[in-house]
Design a protein that fits this description.
It comes from Candidatus Mycolicibacterium alkanivorans. This is DUF955 domain-containing protein. The protein is mainly alpha-helical and about 160 residues long. It folds into two domains: about 100 residues, Arc Repressor Mutant, subunit A, CATH 1.10.10; about 35 residues, no CATH class. A hairpin with a 4-residue loop joins β2 and β3. α1 packs across α6.
Length: about 160
Amino acid sequence: MSASRQVTKAVNDVLDLAPRHGEVSLIKLVAAVSEDRARPIEIAMAELPPGVTGQWRQYGDHDVFLIQRGLPTWDRTLAHELGHLVLGHYGIPVAEAARELAEVADDGLIGYMLNQRTGCMGPSGEDAEQEAEDFAALLLYRLGRLPSDRSSIVQVRLGEAFG
C-alpha cells in the first residue's frame, strides 16, 4: 500500500472510532483510539528541548503525548503524534539510541536522551515524519468538515468527493 493510501486509511480508521453523537474533537478522537487499543493515552504539556513541539513516549502500560508548553495552537502537534501512533512508527528504544551514541552515560545524558525524539530515528525517519505530517493535515481537515453532531462520516466523504 502506498504511503498516501496508508495515511488516508489511518485517518479513516481513526474517524470511524469517533462518537456518533455529540461534538467530535481531536481530544475525543485520542480518547477513542486509547479505548480501541485498550491502552491509556495521556496528553501533557511539558518543557521540551528547543525545536521540539511534541513527543510520543511509550511506557509498559500506557502512552504519553507531550506537547511543548506555550504553543499558541497545539492541535497540529497532537494530531502529528497521534499519526505516529496509529501508523505504527515505533522507531528505536531510547536506551538503544543512547547506547549507539555514547559509550558511557551519566544521569545528565540519560535525561537529555529521554527528551529527544527517538521515535522516528533510523533509515525511515524522514518518511515517518512526512507520514505523520500528512496524517495530521488530513485528520484536521476532515475534523473541520465534520458536522458538530456527526451522524455519518459518509456525509463528509461524499462532500469531499463531490465538492
